[in-house]
Design goal:
Rossmann fold; alpha/beta; 3 domains
Length: 368
Amino acid sequence: MNNTEATLLLIDDEPFNLEILEELLSDDYQLITAENGQVGVEKAIEFQPDLILLDVNMPILNGLLTCEQLKDNLDTADIPIIFVSALASIEERLAGYKVGAEDYITKPFQEQELQIKIELILASMQAKATLQESSTEAMNMAMTAMTSASEVGQILQFIRDSYTVDSYDDLAQLTLDLYETYGLQILLRIKTKLNSFYYSHLGTVTDREKSVFELVADKGRFIDFGRRTAMNYDNFALIVNDMPVDDAEKYGRIKDNMGIMGEAVEARAITLATELHLEERRHALDALMARAETMIAEIKLEHSENSYQNGQILNDLLENVEEAFLTLGLSDKQEEELINLLNATQQASTQLYDNGLNLDEKLASIKA
């Protein structure tokens, strides 16, 4: 702080003393004067000087009481005070320090002593302010780093959790929950080849809100309008209704995290669509196989009945032929050949039936 930038408040009930101080200090500082302690307190609150020079013996409100009031007021408690007084005893000086003064100069004083003490106190206050500013900045940086680390952890957990969901509803709820940790309300749309699904923290998405998705669909990845930010992907879109536009650091951090989260949701929406499509095909195939099993069971039953009837016909034929041997006049060799031929025909017919019984085993191997 340059001297000409510093403002001093001079409080003394003697105009002559004020004139002396003004003559000594006006070239180096901005000066404000007050003729008693009560006026001095009021001006200190109004003008917030960098330093106060305060007399002790004053009417209405003496210097010690004035100092106490200034130190008890949060608006003026940090303003340094130098007592300038003719009271020079140790007890009087200690009384000044006791009520909170930074220094005590006795009248008459040396001009150089006063200047040096003022400069030292102002330099000390400037160093203190710089240290406080650096400390605050370091604390803010630490808090930002901690916040960012926490948010990165949340994003990583979100990505892990996104691959455990098995429906669009669960994916949407996971996304809503993540944004709720930022204190943000969002609208969400997940698109498939046949449908669009809409979600909101409030539960219902109005037709007007749905139309906003259409308006911003071809405007790029990120679209800012007012306090809203929209984010577009092929299978997923999101609108944040209340972005913290007044907090540039938080706003930028959320925008960065939105991009990471958006990529994760888009990737999961794509794989989820494939998984759901395969699941639908599996159910359709299971239904088809169940129908095939029913049809084969019906065919087997019909085949079994036909085979039984066919066997009966062949048995009857064999019996009839054997009876006919009595009148046909065949030789033993001819009879044997004919019987063998009929038996072979019966075995071939039975084998065809057995082959039909293996259809269910083949169907089971297809399902496996």
